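Annotated sample (chain length 496).
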Amino acid sequence: MSKKLKILFVSTEVAPHTKAGGLGEVMRSLPKALNSLGHDARVFVPKYGKITADAAIKLKPVVNSLKVPVGGEQNENLSCKVEILKSNNQTPIYFLGNKEYYELRANAYGYSDDATRFALLSRAALEFVKSQKWTPDVINFTDWHTGFGPNYMATEYKDDSKLAKIATVFSIHNLYHQGGFDHACVPDLDFDDGKSPLPFLFDPRLGKLNGMRRGIMYADTVNTVSEKYAQEILTEEYGEGLSQLLNETRGKLFGILNGIDIETHNPKTDENIPFRFCGKDIEKRINNKKALQKEFNLPISDDIPLVGMVTRVVSQKGMDLIEQILEPAIENLGIQFVIAGSADKQYREVFEKFKEKNPEKVATHLVFDNKLPRLIFAGADIFLMPSRFEPCGITQMEAMRYGSIPIVRATGGLADTVINFDSAANSGYGFVFEKYESLPLYTQIVRATEIYKNKKVWNGLIRKVMKLDFSWKTSAKKYIELYDSAIEAHNSLLSH
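Output written by the structure step:
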């Protein structure tokens, strides 16, 4: 068994304080799972304006004046502060404060100086570690935003007596996002091969550097959030321009499926749903469906199949396929459709038009919401996730936890978590299609709605998905193995 490890996660999100997607949930639940195994996991994140404004969050100062070098030829420092949020049995969270870059910003992302903000986060995390008695065995950086962290450690801090002994892991939650730019349209003059020195924090060139590429290049170990996705990104189709680099470094690439927090997501105790239930009394679940229909002013009926989606309403999530099949699914299959999540302009207009045309069949809530997803999980009969690509996907696991039967495309973590239902063999529990085309998706919706009519079979599927174990218990142990590999690789480099 591995020794008890000390792990520091450096991230831009941690739920419930900051959450734009699945990363925030992982940063809440993975450290918690590691700590439950006896390890010491902590999180280091920016203190955004939302946190500053929340009087209920009680922070204690750790470092009142953390001097962070701006780098390059500039012999200057940025002054930051670090505070900690720690309560009984909770993961310690360090919040990095800086008024200009975090505390006066309402959002986590979307600013022209994001590269500076997140390079500062990475470097500040290292300066913070230098200032403390607590020394992690591993620093786990997450996504492009903190990809400069392994780069700093391998260059600027390679001779530091403390930091040089710490192993690094770089976790890819979504390879598509590689910096504050469209990586598919980078001019040759701006291409970042990852080998040039990092410029100082205020240099405009910083915004053209590929944080994802650099994280992969300089970390001791790299992982993605599902085994299938780790295989997919080695191909040109899914590699987002980095497949060659990933193949060159595949010896240090691993895939570990994300889990979900089964305590927070528990239909038996969840106060976010009006009627609580478990796998032994799924008859109570129908009351949540009625509550969901009432919430969106849809006709209340158990006979109408209710299809739900909780997602970012963007191209990656298969919105073009939904756009093609929604009208015939409404007309021919008689479904109700509810979609919730933040939406880009294009698809906001698409679904609002569907809603205007079919007010008794289509309902939308196209902004981020913390509580509504639980009602959709607990009330929708079918949960739709036809993603173009999906590194892991968490909502399909959360939906199954609440008894919603998934229809998914066989990609990434969706392929790892959903097995196609075979009525003849009585195996599987979801509906899976392969090709990214509208007809295969429509075919699976037809299958699902037909089987829905057989309540005995359908209730059997509900009980089956509610028994599935998507907890972090297994995955957390695999992360410990990953960290051991990173430490071994790092020590091997030091010995040479």
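Annotation: Residues 53 and 103 are 9 Å apart (CA to CA).
Annotation: The chain has two domains: 6-259+473-495, 279-467.
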